[in-house]
Amino acid sequence: MLSQKPATPNGDKDQQPDQIANRIKPVATLEYRDPNGPVVYKSGEEVYKNACISCHGTGAAGAPKVGSGDWTSRAGQGYATLLKHSIDGIRGMPARGGTSPDDYSDFELGRAIVYMVNNSGGHMAEPTEPTKAAPAADTASNATPTPDAATASSPAATPTEVVAVAEKVVETPKIDGKTIVESSCMACHGANGPGPTVGNKAAWATRLTKGEEGLYQSGLKGINAMPPKGGFAGSDEEFKAAVDYMVSQAK
């Protein structure tokens, strides 16, 4: 029994794996780039294989096929015209071949055009690579500070003066808990007061089991007959210093 293979326009060549892959390949592909990364331009061959081969590798939709005489007349139009057609689109070809400026720059599209022309018997020069913009000078950080008149006329401070100023700036006044207790708390925490007497360890023993934070909160919020902070008008930190002093006297 004899069998006959179906005829194809170009014989077995059209049945090769690479030709089949080209025919079923999507018209466009997506590629993600880091917008903050260094600029690395694709070669004409890379752009062609990633974005152009589906039509220009097969002649689909009337596109001039690479390697054929289709490019002879087109190459005669010149690089600028071919690039404009590529960017704006022409006949069945969409703008930029269906890609976007984020996919390929005008320069990269131009490279692809040159690649297709030169691989179809033409001799077109490579486009000039765009000049990378130099980073803007940081005028604020590079500028030489100009002292004002007062600073320029003031004598330089001695090391001793610098240390004295630094110590004055960072110095934090110490809160004297003892003074606060003696001036504001003794009416209740004195010998005849309703509260636990300062220095009476037995009276403070059960209260100390609350811990430092527990004592602070009881005093700040008030407890039993004692109003918040015992009626003390100072800051919370000053009140805590008073508590610390009374605790120190009960240990």
Automatic annotation (TrEMBL):
Cytochrome c domain residues: 39-173, 172-250
Ranges of compositional bias, category Low complexity: 125-158
PROSITE patterns to which the protein is assigned, alphabetical: CYTC
Keywords, alphabetical: Electron transport, Heme, Iron, Metal-binding, Transport
Annotated segments matching region Disordered: 1-26, 122-158
GO molecular function, one term: electron transfer activity
InterPro entries: Cyt_c-like_dom, Cyt_c-like_dom_sf, Cyt_CIE
Organism domain of life: Eukaryota
Family annotation (PANTHER family): CYTOCHROME C5, PTHR40942
Family classification: Belongs to the cytochrome c family.
Function of the protein: Electron carrier protein. The oxidized form of the cytochrome c heme group can accept an electron from the heme group of the cytochrome c1 subunit of cytochrome reductase. Cytochrome c then transfers this electron to the cytochrome oxidase complex, the final protein carrier in the mitochondrial electron-transport chain.
Descriptive protein name: Cytochrome c domain-containing protein
